[in-house]
Write a structure and sequence with these properties.
By secondary structure, the chain is an alpha/beta fold. It has two domains: 10-220, Alpha-Beta Barrel (TIM Barrel); 232-355, Lyase, Ornithine Decarboxylase, Chain A, domain 1, CATH 2.40.37.10. 28% of the residues lie in helices and 23% in strands. The chain contains eleven helices and 19 strands. The protein has helices at residues 10-22, 35-39, 43-50, 62-70, 85-93, 103-110, 137-146, 168-187, 199-204, 329-335, 340-345; strands at residues 5-8, 29-33, 56-59, 76-79, 97-100, 117-122, 150-156, 193-195, 212-213, 232-237, 240-244, 249-250, 256-257, 262-267, 284-287, 290-293, 303-306, 318-322, 352-355. The strands form four sheets. Strands 8-7-6-5-4-3-2-9 form an eight-stranded parallel sheet. It binds pyridoxal-5'-phosphate.
Length: 356
Amino acid sequence: MGPTIALIDSKKLDKNFSYLTKNIKNNSKIIMIIKANAYGHGAIEVAKKFDKKIDYFGVANLQEAIELKEAKIKKNILILGSISNEEITDSIKKNIIFTIYDLSQLKFINKLPFKRIKFHLKIDTGMNRLGVSINEIDKILKIINMNTKLNMEGVYTHLAEADIKKSSFTKKQISLFHEIVIKIQKSVNRIDFIHIANSSGILNHNIDFCNTTRPGLMLYGLGTNKNLNPVMTLKTKIIKLRDLKPGESVSYGRTYIAKSKKKIAIVPIGYADGLPRSLSNKGYLFCKGNKCKILGRVCMDLTMIDVTNVLSPKIGDDVIIFGDKYQSAMDIGKSAKTIAYDIVCGISKRVTRLYK
Ligand SMILES: Cc1ncc(COP(=O)(O)O)c(C=O)c1O
């Protein structure tokens, strides 16, 4: 095992899950979002842990769904994103549920020879990303009602700014979706899963008419809510130390030049591991409780930090990138001018995940 590891704390996952259940209705169903390798936390490990506790897993595409099936995950899997017609056929054969987000896909499945085709319908209410348009709903209902093989098990939409507590746009999206749900329920016998809320939707908005939620980020302990516990700690170790004289430079492009004597440490983590290159000369890592500035450009596999103020640093000393009691993935995201999602999803596969 290399020195750069992502520690995944199962107890914190449990705590976040119980905070989730406290914040949803008792009988509310859960589609646990574990796309992008469970936001970098390990989709198979997370799925195994929650297979008996939730109703569905949500992934981005067929490949992610197949990985879970191959790992013998029992719960239903919903593909939330991109799916080609060929993949739709494959999903049906593999008993993987997919999202219909375009009318052409419904027309395609309407002609397929399978006995039962289960899917969720995504409706666009303002995100202008995936989802059928509201003015297509009548046509859609007509097709579904004329073909008993089509089993629309769920309907959903996605909020564009659920993180803003008093957003009038979110209110509009919710009420628009409610109207459509009422219309669909009048026309179609039973919809088992009605869902809209991601983590911020759950924590910030009251959405009574839905019976299902789609949490992702909050389970991994990220977001601004103080009750959440970040699950991942990303750490590495010092592999080399050197002393700089005034005037000496560090890393590619010589963007850092020492003004005074400096002690620097080299750590084996770079942008290929998921440490954003935009933290060059800007971000901080932690060694023995000290905030150590990144000096020069972050390289593909290595980064240099200032350990001048660290008491007798040694090869093998731990360096924390985020987690523990130090900065969070959100702080790193802020310094890198991005979001925590981007940081944790970007931790690449060569970083060993350790579960405790
Ligand atoms: C359609 C959909 N639902 C739910 C989620 C989960 O969102 P969050 O991680 O903010 O809880 C996502 C995440 O991107 C998503 O794309």
